[in-house]
Amino acid sequence: MTATDGQRSRRAVLAEAGTALDRAPDAAGAELEGARDRLALPRPVVLRLPGSPAERAAGQVRREVVAGGWRFEVTVEDAARAALRERAGRVEGDVAGPTRLVVRAQIPGRVVSVGVRDGQSVEAGQRLLSVEAMKMENEIRAQRAGRVERVTVKPGQRVERGDELAVLA
Amino acid sequence: MSPQARSASPAWPFSRVLIANRGEIAVRLVRACRELGLESVAVYSDADAGAPHVRAADQAIRLGPTPPTESYLRADRIVAAALATGAQAVHPGYGFLAEQAAFAEACLAAGLVFVGPGPATLAGLGDKLAARRAARDAGVPVVPGTLEPARFDRAAARAHMAAVADDVGWPLLVKAAAGGGGRGMRRVDHRAELQAALASAAHEAEAAFGDGSLYLERFVQDGRHIEVQLLGDAHGTVVALGERDCSAQRRHQKLLEEAPAPGLSPAERKHLGELAVRVARAVGLQGAATCEFLRGPDGAVWFLEVNVRLQVEHGVTELVTGLDLVHEQFRIAAGEPLSRRVLAAAARAASPERHAIEMRISAEDPAADFSPQPGRVTHWREPAGPGVRVDGWVGEGTVVSEAYDPLLAKILVVAEDRPAALARAARALDETEIGGLQTTLPFHRWLVREPAFRAGGISTEFVAHAWDGAVQRETATTVALLAALAADGTLLGANGSPEAAPAADLPVTTEWAAAGRREALEAWPR
């Protein structure tokens, strides 16, 4: 199980800073007692947050935790799934030739939508297409500016890990 | 109608009171009415339909849409509401119209009793410079500075201010004559910055108060904000009921108040009380008021201003003196002389035998510069037990609108001395649970444990220097994440799928948390 503090849209940053915790629930309970004692914090209040249908479908549970008066919005999910999904959203490409970049699927899924046309110029960070994987929509973004040489896939199409999605020139 | 709906005294000129306010103070005033056998009439805006103060009162009447300018600041509608409901008196609470001379005048013109000072007193003290002059004339030291308003758009006034600035001394404060709440106020450290500060302060004051007049005041380094509670009756008697220390502030907003002020000798307390009474007599105070002073590190005290109303923090004085200041306000408004009980409390005020602390729990994020956090309260648990009082208006499901003050509740504690009161404050804060929006609760948990604050005598700059909300929040992160994991361990089904967890009940209280709370209850000091 893993818990991530997602308040203030700093989720990724916080995860990098080590605020994503990966523990078995029993171990977390024991560790919590120690940490609470050390920090002289009262018992945290754990409340359930609604969460979007997509989050629920993806096996995520959202919690509001109030610890020492501080309010956190925490996402709890299976650690293995979290790792997989994070990989799905991460854009990795391989350089084919001196300037071309092949964007590949990181996990199996289904193409939901394509946001660019062949020949279109894109900025770094611009959405190329979305792939549904782990019941979540993952945006695949251009990791550098350039021109879309081709989009290899169509909406609705299934892709396997390693399949070519698009090529940037 | 309350079962004991009989006026405390048949001789009183009112038996039904309109409460011209909302939130915690309106609830507190309705409670006082019930205790005195007075009927209460609440007023509300659209956002407050069905709010606790509306439900608490005997009857309620709508003022208008949510913005205060269309509801709680509409003197005409409030007076009309009082007349329509047959109320004979109006209590303004604090804020909104409480210190508007025109509102007091409108009430009197309509034949209503205004629970507060007369319009002339309000008009005289609403002008901060007039108050400064009155204090000086009464022989009370005022913070060195100018005593006449100056218009920045007049070249002669600008030149005069620059000329006297050196006499006032550096650093100094540029203040708005019509000011309040820190608006139109600038700190100036060097002569070169003065003209720019005057220009921006005048602009801000003009926008906020419709009056860009300014004055200069010396900035007292490491000063403490200490204020004296006053009561004056219609027969010329004025008493001081002890002081409060309100130095725990952020951007001129008070966060915590306590009485008595730590570290003052009985002689100093007596002296402060005498100065405050002198100012109150000079302005013919009738009702409740607070005289604010600045106390320098050397012990020198300077008059700041008089607030002619019930203060947010009046409760700490009530807990120390044993009086009910709202009851006394009604008695004064009914024309009764100050009671023997009040006079006795005043005589004891310089040697208080109890210590009280108030913590303002507001919907503000103390990790984001105390920015307002409107929203819906999804979980609410107040502290209780010996020596704890909560003046609030919020419960589970309450929607906190961005249109009004973010104050949710005041947690007050009283004990035999300051260390005991601090321990009680820490205990009460740890019992408090609020979900749905970020509040100032973690700030107060930090403050009551902070060594410099515990030592007593912090200055008004202390919080800005010592509080780092982001760092404090970070320390709680691991505990929050672990708690989420531990809670979900009990909710997950055998197959590890969260879908198996109960989905509908909000909030989820886990068995783990419930067991923990039972343990914590048993561990609390008796």
Write a short abstract of this structure:
The complex is a heterodimer of chains A (169) and B (526). With 169 residues, chain A is α+β, with helices and mostly antiparallel strands.
Describe this structure in words.
The complex is a heterodimer of chains A (169) and B (526). Chain A is of the alpha+beta class and 169 residues long. Chain A is 24% helix and 41% strand. Chain A has helices at 11-19, 25-39, 53-57, 79-89; strands spanning 2-5, 20-22, 45-48, 61-67, 70-77, 93-96, 100-104, 109-114, 121-122, 127-133, 136-141, 146-151, 158-159, 164-168. In chain A, a hairpin with a 2-residue loop joins strand 4 and strand 5 (70-77). Chain A starts with a strand and ends with a strand. In chain A, 37% of the residues are buried. By secondary structure, chain B is α+β, with helices and mostly antiparallel strands. In chain B, strand 4, helix 4 (101-109) and strand 5 form a beta-alpha-beta unit. In chain B, helix 4 (101-109) packs antiparallel against helix 5. Chain B is globular, with a radius of gyration of 24 Å. Mean pLDDT of chain B is 90; it is low at 1-5 and 491-510. Classes of the chains: A alpha+beta (169), B alpha+beta (526). Chains A and B meet through strand 1, helix 2, strand 3, strand 4 and strand 5 of A and helix 13, strand 22, helix 14, helix 17 and helix 18 of B.
